[in-house]
Amino acid sequence: MIRIGACGLWSLAPLLALAGCSAQRLTDAGAAQPRVEIAATPYFPQTDHHCGPAALATVLGASGADASPEALAHEVYIKGRKGSLQLELLAAARRHDRIAYVLDPTLPALLRELEHGQPVLVLQNFGLSYLPLWHYAVVIGYDRERDTFLLRSGRTERQRLAARRFLGTWQRADSWAFIALRPGTLPADPDAVRYLEAAAALEALGNHAAVTPAFEAAVKEWPANALAWFALANNRQAQGQDAAAETAYREVLRLAPAQIPARNNLALLLAQRGCKTEAMAILEPARVAAAGGPLAAELIDTLHTVESSSVSATAVCDKQ
Amino acid sequence: MNKRFALVRTLVGLSLSALVAAGYPMSARAGMITTQTAIDAQQSPERLANLDRVRAGLARADVQERLQSLGVDPADAAARVAALPDADLARLADRMDSMPAGGDYGFLAVIGIVFLVLLLLDYLDVTHVFSHTHK
């Protein structure tokens, strides 16, 4: 019996040798500052298997959203798995009105966020690729000279880990990391589409007003990005701010005249306020372009809506 | 057994998807294309296939049932699936069991690893902690 076990272990030998190995040093990875420590990050000692809720409470607290690990356990903990899933941590952050932005799985991306004053929730694998022991922790800083990372982890308020050791555990978890952003705050080095998608995922929960600052920050950061303007237009539209939404949809079409969704939504707004002719003119090119594509059905529905709308004699329709 | 389970799951899923479609937060007006849909149309049109939307409804019921069977309170489970985007639901329905569940790496687990390593070293005659087992 022991032999069988030991035979099984042979295959683990090369993995054991690899465990914890990572050649990267902080200096080489472009750590910009000698020391970073986001000392104001709150600390919640974890109870049994509750590192997910504890780490989540830590990043939420740092972003100004108060939630206890006990309350968060109801939102992320799975008793039968003795742990929490990554996708549910992201969903729970959104339930607390925070944008869950997943970082590029690279060391420089992690360092940029820390230098930007943003604590980062990471997944670590303390086991092996084939015998994983998953753990969540929050990275709160680094020390370039000593080549170490600082973490809030488990029952340790200020854990100092050799960079080599931390990176080994993090990379065996596919270098997964995310930050919880208060709407209006941008990541250190944001990707426009990923940020807008993360903000839209928060908006999908229904609290449109809470997400508005995120889209306003996005059009400020990327004034020439049609998708950012489209997201802002939708957000205004959902709050009944039709005039402001119309202005933003027109900005989308100024930047990207062929954008089908903006033509669709603007046509609906125009038709609703009695500007049927203008709505048809906006919609027609999009309907042709969408034929056979993923939005074909939506555009046909919109055409029917616009066609059955009535013309208002008093509406001012010609602003372009 | 499996077939029956699958049938029940499908039926529950279909009826729930109708409910969910009615209750899921939508933009204020019918026909408006959401930001997420616009991004999908640009980035991954396949996500928008009608089939996927039906699947999202099924996945919601599926994931909720799975969470409950893993000890999550039914009310919590319902709130949790309601907070998950369609694409994530589909991923969870397919692969929840193989996804990492970050917990405590734990004292016992570490002891277990140490034990296995000692066992290996013993087998290789590097150490002699359990030497009686093969001498």
What would the keywords be for this entry?
heterodimer, A: about 325 residues, alpha+beta, Cathepsin B, Chain A, Serine Threonine Protein Phosphatase 5, Tetratricopeptide repeat, 2 domains, seven-stranded antiparallel β-sheet, two-stranded antiparallel sheet, 9 strands, elongated, disordered N terminus, B: about 140 residues, mainly alpha, 6 helices
Summary, kept brief:
Chain A is α+β, with helices and mostly antiparallel strands and 320 residues long. Chain A is built from 14 helices and nine strands.
Look at the structure and name the CATH superfamily of the largest domain in chain A: Cysteine proteinases
Helix and strand run of chain A: HHEHHEEHEHEEEEHEHHHHHHH
Largest sheet features of chain A? 7 strands, antiparallel
Q: Look up the CATH topology of the largest domain in chain A.
A: Cathepsin B, Chain A
CATH second-level architecture of the largest domain in chain A = Alpha-Beta Complex
Largest two-chain interface = A-B, 81 and 57 residues
Oligomer state equals: heterodimer
Low-confidence stretches of chain A: 1-21
Terminal residue distance of chain B: 49 Å
Work out the helicity level of chain A: 40-55%
**Rounded Rg of chain B:** 23 Å
- Strand tally of chain B: 1
Spatial extent as radius of gyration of chain A: 25 Å
Number of helices of chain B: 6
C-alpha geometry of chain A = elongated
Please provide the ordered H/E string of secondary-structure elements of chain B: HHHHHEH
Write the layout of secondary structure elements.
The complex is a heterodimer of chains A (320) and B (135).
Chain A: H1 2-10, H2 13-18, E1 35-37, H3 51-62, H4 69-76, E2 77-78, E3 83-85, H5 86-95, E4 99-102, H6 107-115, E5 120-125, E6 134-143, E7 148-153, E8 156-162, H7 163-171, E9 177-181, H8 192-203, H9 208-221, H10 226-238, H11 242-255, H12 260-272, H13 276-290, H14 296-307
Chain B: H1 2-23, H2 35-43, H3 50-69, H4 74-82, H5 86-95, E1 101-102, H6 107-123
Helix pairs in contact in B: 1-3, 3-4, 3-5
